[in-house]
Design a protein that fits this description.
With 189 residues, the protein is of the alpha+beta class. It has one domain: Immunoglobulin-like (Sandwich), CATH 2.60.40.10. The chain is 29% helix and 43% strand. It has 2 helices and 11 strands. Strands 2, 4, 5, 8, 9 and 10 form a 6-stranded mixed sheet that branches. It has a 3-stranded antiparallel sheet with strand order 1-3-6, with no helix packed on it. The longest helix is centred in the C-terminal third of the chain and has 30 residues. It is flat. The chain starts with a helix and ends with a helix.
Length: 189
């Protein structure tokens, strides 16, 4: 290998080594989001009631951030369809490196939730929290996290029973068709 080829190879390796931490830093979470008081896998929010939630937002970046907006979305049937339940401006609140803030908001859970999953005997829904923030340098970003909610009082969807009702209806229609065909054949004879 010639000297100029070695030089290009070394320059390429150095450039990759310098750019890797910056590329990796963008992929890792920059804010840590956690529900205060959540001790088990679920946070309890009864259907048809308003529950006060406290979200801890921890800045894990080496630079300051300004919290701009908090949005809460609810997926009531665990299908990935999110409905905006609460949105609030956070007033450009500043967080330095390893500083945290508590965002307190009221989550009004609809009374007509039809959950498809039951965990620990309680119907379950999912809560998606999105925090929009701005880095001191001016770039706007978003951090999000999904939390499991226990929703006592929600109606549990029984897909299995609905399938049986459809099958029973089809069997009744087939039975009526067979009876009609047999009766028509007997009259002709």
């Amino acid at each position: 290998m010639e000297n100029w080829q070695r030089g290009i190879l070394i320059l390429t390796i150095v450039l990759l080594a310098i750019s890797m931490p910056h590329a990796m830093a963008q992929m890792s979470p920059q804010l840590s989001l956690s529900l205060v008081g959540q001790t088990t896998g679920q946070y309890i929010t009864p259907a048809g009631q308003t529950t006060e939630l406290k979200m801890e937002i921890l800045n894990e970046m080496r630079q300051g951030v300004y919290l701009l907006q908090g949005d809460a979305y609810l997926d009531t049937d665990l299908s990935g369809t999110w409905a905006l339940i609460h949105s609030e401006q956070l007033g450009s609140f500043h967080l330095g490196f390893l500083q945290s803030a508590i965002w307190t908001f009221d989550l009004a859970v609809p009374a007509n939730i039809r959950a498809t999953n039951v965990s620990n005997g309680t119907p379950q829904a999912d809560l998606l929290i999105k925090i929009t923030y701005e880095i001191v340098a001016g770039a706007r970003n978003m951090e999000q996290r999904i939390f499991a909610l226990g929703v006592p009082g929600a109606t549990v969807q029984q897909y299995f029973n609905e399938v049986w009702y459809v099958l029973a209806g089809v069997l009744v229609l087939v039975g009526i068709g067979i009876t009609f065909a047999v009766a028509t054949r007997r009259r002709r004879q």
